[in-house]
Amino acid sequence: MSNNEVRVVLKLSGEVLAGEAGSGIDPATLSATASQLVRAQKDGAKAALILGGGNIFRGLSAAAGGMDRVTGDEMGMLATVINGLALKDAILRAGGDVQLFTARPLGPIGKPYIRDDVKKAMDAGTLVILAGGTGNPFFSTDSGAALRAAELNCDLFLKGTKVDGVYDKDPAKHSDAKRYDSISFDEMIEQKLGVMDLTATLLLSENNVSALVYKMTAPDAIYNAALGKCDGTRIHP
After folding, report:
1. Which residue of 59, 62, 131, 227 pairs with 84 in a disulfide if CB–CB is 3.0 to 4.6 A?
2. CATH number, domain at 164?
3. Number of helices and strands in the chain (H, E)
4. What is the CB neighbour count within 10 angstroms for residue 153?
5. Range of the domain at 20
């Protein structure tokens, strides 16, 4: 199978749109991200894009401050829709073909998530943005993205992070941290590496979907990730 035939779920943190500010949406960063995705689309990418909402609102942080957890998660899911709308607009302005699907019906904002409709769009080469998480509280963005990767029969789940792969300990705090070229899901769980939550890890492992953790700020990282060919740590079932 060539890279262009790989069907991928590309999970990006909301911060990827925030730029150096760390919050909100930075127009220049948004435009650069969209440009990489449109280039990948023109080179044959078949990708579903899932954005977090942490640049706008974090449900867990709000719950820790006393807010009802379900309410906080609902707000977090809406934050991902805002990011999805921004990215859709940027992709269209860059000349790409994109559709936005939402986990809950949101009228004219996006199409309701229907698995077969999303698969048809991906098969046609359309970039798809999947917003609103799973539509249910208590699921992280990683878990929602892993669920979609399994549902859509994707070959690869790609998670962009601030570092270039999976390490045995935090490389920002430990100069002797060891980077893995590849590791199994079982090994990751056993070592409690915390790259993604347990629900996401088990969903991917049990449905035979490999994962790749890469540095999302590296040059052309998002372009390469959309094509399923970026450098990073491969996590296998």
Report:
1. 131
2. 3.40.1160.10
3. 8, 11
4. 12
5. 8-236
Q: Phi and psi of 210, rounded to 5°?
A: -75, 160
Q: Is residue 1 part of a domain?
A: no
DSSP state of 158: E
User: Which ranges of the chain does DSSP label H, i.e. alpha helix?
Assistant: 27-42, 59-64, 69-93, 115-123, 141-151, 185-190, 198-206, 221-226
Query: Is this model's pTM higher than 0.85 or not?
Result: yes
Written as one letter, the residue type at 88 is: K
Q: Which of 136, 162, 160, 155 is nearest to 204 (CA)?
A: 155
pLDDT, one tens digit per residue, over 114-159 is 999 999 999 999 999 999 999 999 999 999 999 999 999 999 999 9
Number of domains in the chain: 1
Q: Which strand ranges, in their side-by-side order, compose the sheet holding 127-131?
A: 111-112, 98-102, 127-131, 46-51, 7-12, 156-161, 210-215, 233-236, 182-184
Q: Which two tokens stand for residue 61?
A: 């942080």
SS3 179: strand
